[in-house]
Amino acid sequence: MIRAEDVVAEYVAWLTDFLPDDYYHRYREYRWDLGLRRDHQRAAFEAGWLQPTWPREHGGRSLGLREAMEVRLEAAIRSAPKLPNIAGPNVAGPGIRQFGTPEQIDRLLVPLLRGDEWWALGMSEPEAGSDFAGLRTRAVRDGDLFRVKGRKIWTTQAHLSRWCTLYARTDPDAPKHRGISCLILDLESPGVTIEPIRMASISDETFCEVILDDVEVPVANLLGPCNGGWQVALSSLNHERQMIWIMNWVEIQRGLDSVRGSETAHDDYASGEVFTELGALLADAEALRATGYRSLYNELAGRPSPEADILKLLGSLTLQRVWELAAAASGPRSIDDADLLFERQDALAATIYGGTSEIQRNIIAERLLGLPKG
Amino acid sequence: MDVGLNSGQLALRDSVRDVLRAECPPGVARHAMTDPERWRTLWKTVVDLGWAELAVPADGGDGSFGRVDLAVVLEECGAAIAPVPLLSSIGLAGGVLRVAGPAVDEVLEAIGGGVVAALAAHPPGCRLPGVPMTLQNGRLHGRAVAVTGLPRAELIVTLASSADGPVAAVVRVGDGVSVQAVECTDPAQPVADVEIDTAPVVTAPVDMESALATPLLAVAADLVGVADAALARSIEHAKARQQFGKPIGAFQGIKHALADNYVAVERARSLTYAAAARIDDPATSPSAGWTAAALAKAAAAEAAVGCARTGVQVHGALGQTWEHDMHLYLRHAWQGASTLGDSRALYHAVGRRVAGGAA
Prior knowledge:
The complex is a heterodimer of chains A (374) and B (359).
Chain A: H1 4-18, H2 27-30, H3 34-47, H4 65-77, H5 87-99, H6 102-114, E1 119-122, E2 138-142, E3 145-152, E4 163-169, E5 180-186, E6 192-197, E7 207-218, E8 222-223, H7 229-261, H8 268-300, H9 311-329, H10 338-349, H11 357-368
Parallel strand pairs in A: 1-4
Antiparallel strand pairs in A: 2-3, 3-7, 4-5, 5-8, 6-7
Helix pairs in contact in A: 1-4, 4-7, 5-6, 5-7, 7-8, 7-9, 8-9, 9-10
Chain B: H1 7-23, H2 27-34, H3 39-48, H4 67-79, H5 86-97, H6 105-112, E1 117-120, E2 133-136, E3 139-148, E4 155-161, E5 167-172, E6 177-181, E7 191-198, E8 202-205, H7 208-240, E9 242-243, E10 246-247, H8 252-280, H9 286-315, H10 326-337, H11 343-355
Parallel strand pairs in B: 1-4, 2-4
Antiparallel strand pairs in B: 2-3, 3-7, 4-5, 5-8, 6-7, 9-10
Helix pairs in contact in B: 1-4, 4-7, 5-6, 5-7, 7-8, 7-9, 7-10, 8-9, 9-10, 9-11
């Protein structure tokens, strides 16, 4: 039997060997080092640590869910270099693996996992944000082509990506979430215009606007069934959902370390005042981890795991409170701390992406508690 | 680390739930508020079913009767707001004795057999639990406030300072023990103050953090149950009550408040199950066990009070009445919230430890 401790030990040995000697010392710089992050992704793919539950040829080592979670947690605890294009391996990749034809998998998956080809998620539109199913981009069948017209926005890293999972309306007469298909769009196709949008923060996950003017997409690039795009979107995002709490948990730990290490921590006022909030945040962080384990335990036992639906909401809100406390605890020094400014801005995105907190509350209330739709 | 209930614990939960559904609808708590003897018939059922035996720790390595089992049963009793001294006996008093060594085995056996015990751990004027008594020349002396279950108890477990460090001490209610009845937020779970000046039945040295960890966990479990039950009542009402032509649960003002309640309940439940498993693990340090239990208790009190307060709001004027059950949950939640440390005091204590590098 594979023991999780052994797997984690092997992973740690691999990671330690990969990272430069001064990685932790200079983490503030390395976290923006795209070259290092690309190298890390490729090496993780080759060593089977990128998607640990997947088979060897797809960047994994066929681990069980429990062992895979321990590896991911360890990666996060050790601040392993962040994937430069999360949408590829963590959203588009699982979608292609689940819904792709053998030809699509064969052509697309390995370059995606190695990071040689980046991916964008063509979901939001100017008029379709939380109401994703209300999207208007049209794909009209024309022989063995779809002709696509429309506009996508907040499309992260589209300007650096080769491919896009493009959600478009293929049946305007069907109820709105049953008329959507997912198309694999080559962003180099004629008729595609990509405009990056300047971010408020120094984030390198730049938004883009993607304008689609009569773009031809081969029917062979349909991902999943025609008009089955809603299911492709849900399944792809679900994979990501399981990762989000781990990322949030570790970022919370980093925030808590920053609170503990702040220069004013020994100031009489600060030291007394921040403790209560610090304790509450420690409870949130531990609850996140315990709930993650609880839902995994239920899943492995073949039971429903409704508690997993709190992870996104609790994790993202806690992350924001952690960095606000870190700012309060560092007093006026918070003003000239560029890293802290970025953390605070970045935390505000966490209650938006992957389904806003308001949508999360609707999901909990309607799906779990059985309250009627508004 | 596994967090959650295995199939045996789920079966235990369901059997306890079924019994309480039949024997203890919420009206029983209301009745117990005005009839001081009402608890006895239910208590007899509880003892006959062997639930009090959970006070005695498991001796085998098969994991039966660990703290997760204890938490499961107390959670169900909390959900039923059962007006019995089970929390007081096996969770609070028994929780301290669990870590007091073989000297107290007989007392634990007695509690397991249905003798009611209470834990005196609140020194006057303190928000956090502590050491209210002193042990000197074989006599126990001191005063404790807000002792849950004391009006129904035969035995008192307390914590005392002695020349050799902290001890757990057991006294029998009687001569040298003055029980002072007080007004209770939740008369279905009466509390009292106590003044002690007598020779204890038995004493045993304890580590303070280990001694308080299981009691904190036990209150957490009880309050998770209260929170869950109060939320269930609010959901039921939000689906049924119509205003402006639709159920009020369709409005986001209500819907989101209840979703936030759900997050609070599951947050507390995860912390509680995780703390139970952690304290059961012999590799856990006393300090880590206390921290886990303290956070669970703080979170559970927030969940219980939050769900009950939202419940009053969701029920509107109905929630203000004696006949509606919501005030029963609210009273139980408020009382439990101040037992063994209110949430802010516990968060503060944990935050200070962690900032100081102690945990």
